[in-house]
C-alpha cells in the first residue's frame, strides 16, 4: 500500500524489466491489486485468414488486473520488430480483431488493453507487419477547380497491409496540398503529373487545376432611369480565364425592370429593385446593383440671355443652342479641375493634355465649314457641331488625350473614363448613345458638370440627355 500511494502521489513510474519486455506502471494505471507474473511471448507463422503465412509475434498476458490499462514493449536485440506494425487482439473464439494499424515502433510499442462485452480484458495480442504488394488509385486523372478538395480513393493490395502512407512527389510544393488521409486541395492552376510511391511501388496520375472566378467587374455601381429608358450593364469575370465565366442576370422585380442575357436593362415601372449578376456554375460569385426608376416629368428649363439651363446645368446639343455673341473663354472652375485631373493622371503614368478647349462661334463656324467641304454635311453632323451648338463655345468642354476612336481602349483612355467624374467631368458622348446625343462615340471629349452631378451620371451609366430627361 505504501508503494502504491507513493506512486500515486508522485510523478514517478514503476518499470518492470525482463530481457524481452518492459512494463511501465504510472500513477494513473496502478492499483494495489497489480500482479504480473510473466508474459508468454513467441514468434510463429500465423494461421489466421486475415494474416496467414506471415511471421508474427504472439503476446500472451495471462494475469492482468483492472489497474493495468496499457502495456509497453521496448525494442531490443532479443525482441525485434519492424518499424511499423499492426496490433490485433485474439478473441475467445480464436478470431482476431484489428486494434491499431501502422504503429510506429521506434520507441517501442505501447497499446491500451481491450475489453470484451463482459468487461473482461483480452490477454492475447499479435504484432505483425503485413507487407504491401500493390496499390492503385481508382482514377487515372483528376480535374479540380482552384481551392477545391477531393478525397483520393485508393485500393491497397492486400487490403489490410500495414504501410498505407503514400509519398507524393511534388516538384512544386505550390501545386496542391495532400493530407495524410489522402485529401487533395488544388492550389496552382495548370496541368501536372503527380508521382507517388509506397516502398518500391510507383504510381502516378494526371492533375488539372482550373482557374475560378474571384469577382465580377461591372461598369455601373448603381442605376437611375426614367420609365421607358434602357441601359446596358457590362460585366466580366475576373480572372478572365476562370472556368466559371458564364454569367446570368437576374432582376429582383421584373415588374420594375427586366434584364436580358447580355445585360440590357429596360425600365418598366416606378420603384426600386436590384440586378444580381452571378456565375452560372460553382463556385458562385455575384454582385448586386441597385436600380431606381423615376417618373419622367416635364422638363423645366430656364432661358437666360439665350442660354438653356436644365436642373442648373447649361445644355448645348443639337436641340439647344447658344448665341453667337456668347464668348466666355475657358471656364476657370472647369480649367482648375482639369489641371487636377491632368496632374493625377501623370502620377498614374498618363499624359492627358488638352488638344482643343474653348472655341468661339466664328472658330466653330470655320471648323464646321471645312468638314462639310471634306465629308459632306450628313457625315459632318455625326461628329461636328454646327456653329452655335458646340459645347466648346461654353468654355466647359475639352478634347483631351488623343482624338482617335481607339483612344477609349488605351490605358490612358480607360483611366480617363473611369476617373474623370472625380474631377467633375463626364465623357459627353459615350459609346452606343449616338441615337440620343446625335454624335458618335468620342472618348476624348469631356464636359464639366461638377463633381456631384458627374458622379451621379457616372454611376447611372446614362448620357447627359438621359440623365436630364430631355
Produce the secondary structure layout.
Blueprint: H1 2-8, E1 14-17, E2 22-25, E3 40-45, E4 55-60, E5 70-73, E6 84-90, E7 96-104, E8 109-112, E9 124-128, E10 134-137, E11 141-145, E12 149-151, E13 154-157, E14 167-169, E15 176-178, E16 183-186, E17 190-198, E18 201-210, E19 215-218, E20 223-226, E21 230-232, E22 235-238, E23 247-251, E24 257-259, E25 264-267, E26 271-279, E27 286-294, E28 301-304, E29 307-310, E30 313-314, H2 332-347, E31 354-356, H3 361-375, H4 377-380, E32 397-400, H5 411-419, E33 425-429, H6 434-437, E34 442-448, H7 451-460, H8 464-468
Parallel strand pairs: 11-18, 20-27
Antiparallel strand pairs: 1-2, 3-4, 4-9, 5-8, 6-7, 6-9, 10-13, 12-16, 14-17, 15-16, 17-18, 19-22, 21-25, 23-26, 24-25, 26-27, 28-29, 29-30, 31-32, 32-34, 33-34
Characteristic key phrases:
470 residues; alpha+beta; five-stranded antiparallel β-sheet; 8 helices; 15% helix; 36% strand; rod-shaped
Can you walk through the features of this model?
The protein has 470 residues and is of the alpha+beta class. It is built from eight helices and 34 strands. A five-stranded antiparallel beta sheet has the order 3-4-9-6-7, with no helix packed on it. The radius of gyration is 41 Å and the shape is rod-shaped. The protein starts with a helix and ends with a helix.
Amino acid at each position: 500500500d505504501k508503494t502504491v500511494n507513493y506512486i500515486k502521489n508522485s510523478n514517478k513510474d514503476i518499470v518492470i524489466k525482463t530481457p524481452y519486455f518492459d512494463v511501465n506502471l504510472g500513477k494513473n494505471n496502478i492499483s494495489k491489486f497489480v500482479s504480473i507474473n510473466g508474459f508468454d511471448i513467441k514468434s510463429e507463422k500465423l494461421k489466421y485468414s486475415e494474416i496467414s503465412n506471415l511471421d508474427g509475434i504472439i503476446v500472451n498476458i495471462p494475469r492482468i488486473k483492472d489497474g493495468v490499462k496499457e502495456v509497453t514493449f521496448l525494442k531490443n536485440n532479443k525482441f525485434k520488430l519492424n518499424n511499423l506494425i499492426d496490433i490485433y487482439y485474439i478473441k475467445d473464439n480464436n478470431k482476431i480483431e484489428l486494434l491499431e494499424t501502422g504503429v510506429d515502433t521506434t520507441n517501442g510499442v505501447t497499446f491500451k488493453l481491450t475489453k470484451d462485452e463482459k468487461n473482461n480484458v483480452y490477454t492475447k495480442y499479435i504484432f505483425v507487419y503485413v507487407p504491401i504488394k500493390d496499390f492503385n488509385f481508382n482514377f487515372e486523372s483528376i480535374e479540380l477547380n482552384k481551392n477545391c478538395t477531393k478525397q483520393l480513393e485508393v485500393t491497397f493490395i492486400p487490403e489490410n497491409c500495414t504501410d498505407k502512407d503514400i509519398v507524393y512527389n511534388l516538384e512544386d510544393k505550390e501545386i496542391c496540398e495532400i493530407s495524410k488521409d489522402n485529401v487533395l486541395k488544388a492550389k496552382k492552376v495548370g496541368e501536372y503529373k503527380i508521382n507517388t510511391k509506397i516502398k518500391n511501388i510507383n504510381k502516378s496520375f494526371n492533375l488539372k487545376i482550373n482557374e475560378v472566378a474571384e469577382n465580377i467587374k461591372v461598369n455601373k455601381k448603381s442605376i437611375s432611369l426614367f420609365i421607358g429608358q434602357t441601359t446596358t450593364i457590362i460585366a466580366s469575370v475576373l480572372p478572365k480565364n476562370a472556368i466559371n465565366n458564364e454569367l446570368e442576370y437576374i432582376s429582383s422585380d421584373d415588374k420594375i425592370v427586366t434584364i436580358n442575357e447580355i445585360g440590357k436593362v429596360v425600365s418598366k415601372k416606378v420603384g426600386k429593385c436590384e440586378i444580381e449578376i452571378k456565375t452560372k456554375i460553382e463556385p458562385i460569385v455575384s454582385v448586386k446593383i441597385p436600380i431606381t426608376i423615376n417618373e419622367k416629368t416635364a422638363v423645366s428649363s430656364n432661358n437666360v440671355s439665350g442660354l438653356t439651363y436644365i436642373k442648373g446645368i447649361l445644355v448645348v446639343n443639337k436641340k439647344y443652342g447658344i448665341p453667337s455673341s456668347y464668348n466666355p473663354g475657358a471656364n476657370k472652375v472647369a480649367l482648375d479641375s482639369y489641371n487636377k485631373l491632368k496632374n493625377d493622371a501623370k502620377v498614374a503614368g498618363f499624359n492627358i493634355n488638352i488638344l482643343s478647349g474653348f472655341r468661339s462661334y466664328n472658330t466653330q463656324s470655320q471648323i464646321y465649314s471645312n468638314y462639310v467641304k471634306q465629308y459632306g454635311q450628313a457625315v459632318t453632323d455625326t461628329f461636328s457641331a454646327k456653329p452655335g451648338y458646340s459645347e466648346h463655345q461654353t468654355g466647359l468642354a475639352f478634347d483631351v488625350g488623343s482624338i482617335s476612336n481607339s483612344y477609349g481602349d488605351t490605358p490612358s483612355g480607360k483611366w480617363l473614363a473611369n476617373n474623370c467624374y472625380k474631377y467633375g467631368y463626364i465623357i459627353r458622348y459615350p459609346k452606343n448613345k449616338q441615337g440620343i446625343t446625335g454624335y458618335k462615340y468620342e472618348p476624348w471629349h469631356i464636359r464639366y458638370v461638377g463633381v456631384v452631378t458627374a458622379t451621379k451620371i457616372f454611376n447611372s451609366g446614362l448620357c447627359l440627355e438621359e440623365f436630364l430627361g430631355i
